[in-house]
């Protein structure tokens, strides 16, 4: 997933800094080696990843410019080896070439633009093809926007679901959130800064007023984490222009805090003094239930009553 590029060198730096690590350029075992790359700070690369980049026979990357710059920063020479672009738009054409290299007994290293390969990343099809063909597939673990966000969000991390990017269309996005509402795990989303405000509002409708966090520009200079109930985050981002890479986390579905009879009683009392919409909103927030479900019950009670 593209969650940002490697941190650039200062503009006045004529040459890359002297690397602190001398990569091990000994022969790398044949196979497909997936490398996690920094989501922001270039120094988050692992020593093993640098060793693989230094020794692989063939290099492939979601963005070759990003990988080339990362290698320059850390003093890893390309040394005449092929550096091939592999992304969503050319995967069908590039996979056979990479598989031929594996068939010839070469070591192939693949790096996503930022973060861990296969997490919202085109490396998935390459991995499946290599496994199906019987080639070794290995991973050099490292940076991940999902795990970094879980670390700083302050939400339960013993069970989580990475849901990826919500659909762009409003209707599809609402259905997407509704399907996730009952999952007893912390939900993790990637989202466009242009859509984060709207999505937060739809999350509040689907999930109720759960605790949540919006993580922006993780590991970068302007890193920011905003935590609180979803309704508070909706208000915080309502009129705000947001830039950068966004990860949104929402607390797991809570145990039912009221049985059906208690829920109906709370709604009937609220409907005595409020509209259906306001009654549903107040009861949903008070009981920690999805607003949409409570609204449907409120409509039924209003029709019957």
Automatic annotation (TrEMBL):
Alphabetized UniProt keyword annotations: Cytoplasm, Methyltransferase, rRNA processing, S-adenosyl-L-methionine, Transferase
Family statement: Belongs to the methyltransferase superfamily. RsmI family.
Biased amino acid composition, Basic and acidic residues: 18-27
GN (gene name): rsmI
Major localisation: cytoplasm
Domain named RsmI HTH: residues: 258-301
Region Disordered, residue ranges: 1-29
Gene Ontology CC: cytoplasm
Gene3D superfamilies reported in the protein's UniProt record: Cobalt-precorrin-4 Transmethylase, Domain 1, Methyltransferase, Cobalt-precorrin-4 Transmethylase, Domain 2
GO MF term list: rRNA (cytosine-2'-O-)-methyltransferase activity
Cited function: Catalyzes the 2'-O-methylation of the ribose of cytidine 1402 (C1402) in 16S rRNA.
Protein known as: Ribosomal RNA small subunit methyltransferase I
Catalyses which reaction(s): cytidine(1402) in 16S rRNA + S-adenosyl-L-methionine = 2'-O-methylcytidine(1402) in 16S rRNA + S-adenosyl-L-homocysteine + H(+)
Classification via CDD domains: RsmI
Domain of life, per lineage: Bacteria
Domain Tetrapyrrole methylase: 32-233
EC number(s) per entry: 2.1.1.198
Location of the protein in the cell: Cytoplasm
InterPro entries: 4pyrrol_Mease, 4pyrrol_Methylase_sf, 4pyrrole_Mease_sub1, 4pyrrole_Mease_sub2, rRNA_ssu_MeTfrase_I, RsmI_HTH
Any matching Pfam family: TP_methylase
């Amino acid at each position: 997933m593209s969650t940002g590029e490697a941190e650039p060198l200062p503009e006045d730096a004529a040459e890359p800094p002297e690397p602190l690590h001398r990569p091990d350029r000994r022969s790398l075992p044949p196979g497909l080696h997936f490398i996690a790359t920094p989501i922001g700070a270039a120094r988050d690369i692992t020593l093993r990843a640098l060793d693989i980049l230094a020794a692989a026979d063939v290099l492939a990357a979601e963005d070759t410019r990003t990988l080339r710059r990362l290698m320059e920063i850390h003093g890893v020479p390309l040394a005449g080896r092929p550096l091939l672009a592999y992304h969503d738009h050319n995967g069908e054409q590039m996979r056979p070439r990479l598989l031929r290299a594996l068939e010839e007994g070469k070591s192939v290293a693949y790096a996503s633009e930022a973060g861990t390969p296969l997490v919202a990343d085109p490396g998935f099809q390459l991995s499946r093809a290599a496994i199906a063909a019987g080639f070794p597939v290995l991973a050099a673990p490292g940076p991940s926007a999902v795990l970094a966000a879980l670390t700083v969000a302050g939400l339960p991390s013993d069970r989580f679901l990475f849901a990826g990017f919500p659909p762009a269309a409003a209707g599809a996005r609402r259905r997407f959130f509704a399907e996730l509402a009952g999952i007893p795990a912390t939900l993790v989303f990637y989202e466009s800064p242009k859509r984060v405000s709207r999505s937060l509002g739809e999350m509040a409708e689907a999930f109720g007023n759960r605790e949540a966090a919006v993580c922006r520009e993780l590991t970068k200079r302007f890193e920011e984490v905003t935590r609180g109930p979803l309704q508070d985050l909706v208000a915080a981002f309502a009129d705000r222009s947001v830039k950068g890479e966004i990860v949104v986390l929402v607390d797991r579905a809570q145990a039912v805090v009221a049985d059906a009879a208690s829920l109906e009683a709370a709604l009937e009392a609220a409907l005595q003094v409020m509209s259906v919409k306001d009654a549903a909103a107040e009861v949903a927030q008070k009981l920690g239930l999805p607003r949409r479900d409570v609204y449907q019950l409120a409509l039924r009670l209003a029709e019957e009553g």
